[in-house]
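Thread: adenosine-5'-triphosphate complex, take 2
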Amino acid sequence: MLSIDKLSVELNGKQLIKHVTFTVPKGRITSIIGESGSGKSMTVSAILGLLPVHAHASGGIFLNEKNLLEMSLKERVELRKMHFFTIFQDAANSFSPSKKMKHQLFLLTGHKRGHTKVTFYQKMRLILQDLDLTEEIMERYPFELSGGMLQRCMIACALYIEPELLIADEPTSALDMLIQKDFMDLLKKLNDEKGTTILLITHDLDIAVSAAHSVVVMKKGVVVETGQISDVFEMPKHPYTKLLLANHF
Ligand SMILES: Nc1ncnc2c1ncn2[C@@H]1O[C@H](COP(=O)(O)OP(=O)(O)OP(=O)(O)O)[C@@H](O)[C@H]1O
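Output below.
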């Protein structure tokens, strides 16, 4: 569904990622792993069309066979709005502190889909109930909710939007252990029940192995290994993957 082909990103004469190639199959969870600075977030920024201003991307990012790098800015904004949904590390930063949750949830979902507020309330209320969030949270401000509740709100948005691709960039890093598991269970449920394709970026190998079907291992801006998670974790081929796993388990 999403296919990254020899993607390179250069900024101020420095190559930040080089010839990155991997696929994100439809309906599966694919995880990018690698230590800090390996290029995980830069790859995601390129996919989202959110690279730093002077960065230059080359190669291909194909969504259903269309190369995103050949699209106009306007087309990419539209594509991001209609087909992608992103959950970042710190949900608190995804929301404005000065607006009630109902306005922000509407902007992230119903508004994007062209729904009226009445339709939005009807649908969102049911989704929140399913996630054990009372609809009363819609009347609250983000700072009145916990980090775990805010990440659940992001899942609620994904359930509403049903995006073609959900990108979760270190979604559990700001959560404590128990809430992390809870969040990952919801993400897996979204994939199981709705067939949502997920690209999960994490430096936490436990999270990758518990959730993903396949894995992309990055080191210093390069993909060193890809494959089914069980194959890569049981029989890693690249010395860097071996080292990562040996240091972890
Ligand atoms: N805005 C930027 N300007 C210049 N260089 C950058 C910028 N953002 C990232 N880099 C560089 O790009 C490379 C890849 O960084 P990236 O943030 O993609 O790594 P990462 O694997 O996501 O790390 P982390 O897990 O710490 O987020 C690093 O060398 C980093 O220093």
